[in-house]
Amino acid sequence: MFFDAHIHHKAKESGGFIIGLEGKPYFEETLSNKEILTAHNPKNNYIAFYYVASTEIGVAISHKYVKYHPRREQYTPDEVIKSIRLNQPKCVMIDTLNEPYWTPYDYWKIAREFPDLPFIFPHSGGYLINDFIKICHFQKNVWIDFALTHTTLGHLGNKKGLPYINQAIQYALESPFANRVLMSSDYPFFSQDDVVAYYERMDKKEFLNQNFITLLEKIK
Question: Of 141, 163, 170, 185, which is most buried by a Cβ count within 10 Å?
Fold first, then answer.
């Protein structure tokens, strides 16, 4: 049994954070906002995150879990702050793979604006992983995952992976903020089986399952 904190379609998990994907490019086997909202079921360990398109950045959104994707939608940090203030969500995801546009301090600024609001920073910045684990260390309302980053850049810990990526992940899993690290696959872009096996090799699967449940209960 495992929980997956970053999926775009249901798969083998026992619960997860299921994220809508809108706009271009379109990827097959990913779900739209309309589709993920039908899967929203906190009692059964599923929370749907509504993808905020650029056309909706100034619009009131009734769903209380939102995902911002700055690279795809090209909105600014201040626009995201205004959108959060307008919508008063229970939890916010902001995609961190945003080179060369935003910097890590743009994300930190947003998290500091809303210190009582839980944020998830998926991917932990990719190549900028050290900056994002630093944010998570100091900013108590931030959770992180390593979706894509541990797979594409870290090669799930093997010798082909960038050493500093794997070192940063190992550090985070033993750090004072380890309870705010989530297991995430980014399915269907990457294999859940491979990601689960990666954390099992580090004897961290059950620990990360508990992290998911703790956050889920906090944001229901």
Answer: 185
